[in-house]
Description:
- The chain is α/β, with parallel strands linked by helices.
- The chain has a single domain (about 30-315), classed as 3-Layer(aba) Sandwich (Rossmann fold).
- Helix content is about 50%, strand content about 10%.
- It is built from eleven helices and eight strands.
- It has an eight-stranded mixed beta sheet, with helices on both faces.
- Helix 2 (about 50-60) packs parallel to helix 3 and helix 7 packs across helix 11.
- The radius of gyration is 20 Å and the shape is globular.
- The N and C termini lie far apart (about 70 Å).
Amino acid sequence: MMLELLLFGLLLLGGYFLLHMTLLKLPRCKSTAKLHGKTAIVTGANTGIGKTTAMDLARRGARVIMACRDRQRAEAAIQEIIQETGNSQVIFMQLDLASLQSVRFFADNFLRSESRLDLLINNAGLMNGGQTMDGFGMIFGVNHLGHFLLTVLLLHQLKASGPSRVVNVASKAYTMGNVDFKCLTTHKDLALGSSDYQLFQKYCHSKLCNVLFTYELAKRLQGTNVTCYSLHPGAIKTDIGRYAGFLWSFFMAPIIFFFFVDAESGAQTTLHCALEPGIEHLSGHYFTQCAPLMKIESKAKDDAAAKKLWELSESFCGLS
């Protein structure tokens, strides 16, 4: 019996590694770009894909602004990045995307202290319930609205530093999302409900917002030297669902263990969009596996919805 269990375990382990070396293996960013003299902002940079992205940019010589809410976790990540890369130009600036006031304070602080901005990587995301400081649904407020305001406030600096790029980390989950403008206007949220499944639905809706935001932003940036891209990082092992309920975590744990890949793999398409030369003509496009996906769902390139989301977001942020 013990021998059979041992053989089964070895087969399972072998299958796991074979799966991750073949079907689940993601392409890597091939750019050899050096970033000395360049400045990048990465939101949610203290963990997961954001931390891996910041590490890579620092290794290339960039001045990296770690835009994070939790100072303690950010400073621990900064020490690790500096030790790993030898680049001491890795700076913490506090940013709570669940507070529009915090976003404005961050932008003001950045513009006062930094002379340029070459890369804005809107990476942070969550799948939590509750509301932001301004009364918006937490998922909508952090995943879309906070990043929207941050980007708009930094556009002038991006244009002045060009050529520059904005990279929005979305997800293939956008395909399961919709934007209910009536619900947004009435309830300041993408949907109602707070069960684990309802939170996942809101997450999907927010990822569609990311894609639509990028699509509209590209149109508004035509004629400038700023380009933007949205992307699906892959099915990645991160702590985005760390506040999920027991049942959701119980059912998702084996799926995540066997079929999701690490954060380093998940950062590759972000890095491709940030660094790959010659993709400027693809501004506004959605990327996956380090390549543009030319055929995306029509709802992700709906001109009317993208424009309406932009205008409503401006109104929510007090910009219009």
